[in-house]
Specification:
Shape: globular
CATH superfamily of one domain: MetI-like
Distance between the termini: 28 Å
Order of helices and strands: HHHHHHHHHHHH
Helix content: over 70%
Number of strands: 0
CATH topology of one domain: MetI-like fold
Number of helices: 12
CATH architecture of one domain: Orthogonal Bundle
Oligomer: single chain
Strand content: under 5%
Radius of gyration: 23 Å
């Protein structure tokens, strides 16, 4: 059967292709220039080289910033999981005062502009004894990552038949056994997917980090500081590595999410 393309379909397809090219072509340029043997980004290049990846590994500030970003991302993701999963279960399976309001404002940390969140945390944290530091950055990241985990796990729980948990309870299983034997196997892909997404978002978060960090730098802040002095070739290399890692995590999270819907 021959598929016919009318003018509106071709127009929409061309518009979509243009938008995708506009978004991703700059990143393609960065990836290509990361293999440039010269210190100046010019095209055509004189060849391909891993020179700037070697320079990157020798740059102690960049390596340290990458290490800090990975630790913050792991810690923030852990906070999101530890508080987001119980929060999702509470919303999906229990009634309590303020539940309807909480369901509506749970996405607030994600919808607020990052600069507003950063300023708010910068004003509030000293009042509770948390100075500007990596600890403040960790708490700040964990705050908005809770919303990511909570919403994804909550959506999965809404599709899970409550009668499965009731049957487990009727058979004499305690709540913890019901959670590990019934609930967790059915929401594990949502948990993994939200963890991967949280890790990716935390890794390249700037506004909240900028207001809460002290002497150390995360990778995005370090790259931003380097770019103020001009485009540094090793920035292309580290950006390529982060881009590849982010794409991999997003694809893995999407695959797990698609499997969860089957």
């Amino acid at each position: 059967m021959t598929r016919k393309f009318d003018l509106p379909t071709l127009f929409v397809g061309a518009a979509a292709a243009f938008v995708l090219a506009f978004i991703y072509l700059p990143m393609v340029v960065v990836v290509v220039y990361s293999f440039n043997p010269d210190a100046v980004n010019v095209f055509p290049m004189r060849g391909f080289s891993l020179r700037w990846y070697r320079v990157l590994l020798e740059d102690e500030q960049l390596v340290s910033a990458l290490r800090i970003s990975l630790l913050i991302a792991l810690g923030g993701t852990s906070i999101g999981l530890l508080l987001g999963v119980p929060g999702a279960i509470a919303l999906a399976r229990h009634e309590f005062p303020g539940k309807r309001i909480l369901e509506r404002i749970v996405l607030l940390p994600l919808t607020l502009p990052g600069i507003v969140t950063g300023v708010a945390m910068l004003s509030f944290f000293p009042l509770i004894g948390v100075p500007v530091s990596l600890l403040a950055v960790l708490i700040g990241h964990g705050t908005f990552l809770i919303a990511i985990t909570l919403t994804q796990v909550y959506a999965r729980l809404r599709r899970l038949d409550p009668s499965l948990e009731e049957a487990s309870a009727d058979l004499g299983a305690p709540p913890l056994t019901t959670f590990f034997r019934v609930i967790l196997p059915n929401i594990k892909t949502a948990i993994i997917g939200s963890a991967l997404l949280s890790f990716t978002l935390s890794l390249d978060e700037i506004p909240v980090t900028f207001f809460l960090i002290a002497g150390d730098n995360t990778l995005p802040i370090q790259i931003w500081a380097m770019m103020r002095r001009g485009i540094s070739p090793e920035v292309n290399a580290i950006s390529t590595l982060v881009f590849a890692g982010s794409i991999g995590l997003i694809l893995l999270g999407t695959a797990l999410g698609g499997r969860d819907k089957e």
